Amino acid sequence: MIRNIIFIFLSIIFLGCQEQSQNKIAIVIHGGAGTMQKENMTPELEQAYLLKLEEAVRVGYDILKDGGSSKEAVEKTIHIMENSPLFNAGHGAVLTSDGTAELDASFMDGETLNAGAVAGITNVKNPISAAIAVMEKSPYVLLSSKGAEEFASDIGLEIVPNSYFITERRQNQLKNIQDKNEVSFYDSYIKESKYGTVGCVALDINGNISAGTSTGGRSNKKWGRLGDVPVIGAGTYADNQCCGISATGWGEFFIRNVVSYDIAALVNYKKLNIKEASRIALNKVKDLGGDGGVIVLDKNGDVSMDFNTAGMYRAYINNEGELTVKIYND
Amino acid sequence: MIRNIIFIFLSIIFLGCQEQSQNKIAIVIHGGAGTMQKENMTPELEQAYLLKLEEAVRVGYDILKDGGSSKEAVEKTIHIMENSPLFNAGHGAVLTSDGTAELDASFMDGETLNAGAVAGITNVKNPISAAIAVMEKSPYVLLSSKGAEEFASDIGLEIVPNSYFITERRQNQLKNIQDKNEVSFYDSYIKESKYGTVGCVALDINGNISAGTSTGGRSNKKWGRLGDVPVIGAGTYADNQCCGISATGWGEFFIRNVVSYDIAALVNYKKLNIKEASRIALNKVKDLGGDGGVIVLDKNGDVSMDFNTAGMYRAYINNEGELTVKIYND
Predict the structure, then answer these.
(1) Which of residues 166-205 of A touch B (CB under 8 A)?
(2) Residues A219/A174, Cβ–Cβ less than 8 Å
(3) B contacts of A148 (beta carbons < 8 Å)
(4) Which domain holds residue A140?
């Protein structure tokens, strides 16, 4: 009898400890920061964004809930946004000055600090998968242009014609910019078309944080311009000991400020929380004349979604399964 | 009489203050970190490296001494190394798996935090000048491949055939690697050929710090591989409020650790000096399995040249005009 009581007592303690050691899961996404304003948005378009953001974040959350890895959650979540014409990534990406799509993506694994990225690719259906493949199936971190496409094809990723990425909306956007004979980078047409990058950060049940970002870059870009997305430390960063980050915005300023790694450094070295760190990093971007946003998820499952533009397409699901989806600054 | 004495007295104070406010100047360079060992080096080759490093660092120092900008000092110093077949940059760069040269370079201006970089270019004689031109003459920070070459040609930089970069030494090196049918990245042939990147950091009389790095990347590289050099924050970083950094080594690890910006963050956020910060950053690289070196110059003109390889081609001239040139770990 006493042995039974002791056994039950120990079992309760054991189960309690298991509960304790159960890591939190959480996922956060962005679909780009920009000048979107409620008065310029139709109810239908707004609804389409909200639904797609919810669909994307739920795909990743369900993977995490089933015990899947943060890597898989990030990849599958970003696929939803890459495959949607709403965002500036994959199908529906903005166009270069030649009217073609040139895509960049990056991924970082917070457990191993391993990373992969592709820059300036034109025919891989899901650039985020190419970035992950660079990490897993090559001895490199960053592959570019034709070489990256050859790699993606060699390892069997889905290859599509460049026309797959091109939508009428982006063609009109490009025409508008080119008709205006781009004189200023502060031009509102350019501002509107500069953003829309997608990104995701997830924390899985094993405490692993992954971060990924995918983009078509900047409308009317030329000369093989690369932004912050393929630059580990600028557009993407992840470290289990700290947090994961994905950025969106005026890429040049995010490169110059090494925004994603700066947030991690502020958390690690100055012991700031992720909201304070994000604000400081975005203020530095603003001080130089740039703007954009960042999503951050720390090792405790806490989320920050900050931006200094009019809005940022964004969503998260926390450890309690609570969903938040937002567009504007509210 | 009293007025004259007062005038002379004030003049002495004024001149003293001028002397006081005169900023220090200093310059530091590297020509790559690697497995070079004294017993494998001929006296003639050793002498050639020492003389070329001295020539390069003196070119930049003379510019600084004449009141020139740190930007000009960095550019002209790197030209000397890019034009020399001794280093893995410009003429004498290592070759891709196809036997061609693909060059990367980056530059950062510590006063404005502006930056420029080129990745995977094959026909611009001095890639460091292309990086500076991206910063000064385009709205972008990072240009790649054919687009970057078009830009360089458009703005009138010197264009050369790819054969200009190719030397017999590098062709033999590539053949050795390919004959050994590259199986391990830890292979000594690959280790030897992986390094040789050149870099320079300078502090001018106005307190402006500039940093630049130029490389042919990694021997036998393929798939449009880019290393840390075109990645601001990894291979190059500069901030007048802190320091300037140029890195050399196994680029993938320098990207994953955001090495250059990490050193600046350790100085800014943790108040470490540049020697402590360099050591920590290189230890992180080592922990992941990589190696290499960094040169750092802070706003006071203090210099750090640290590495965790057998040696690093390196030199500096401090504010007193004292020259140091070294190769091995001594």
Answers:
(1) 185
(2) yes
(3) 223-224
(4) 24-328
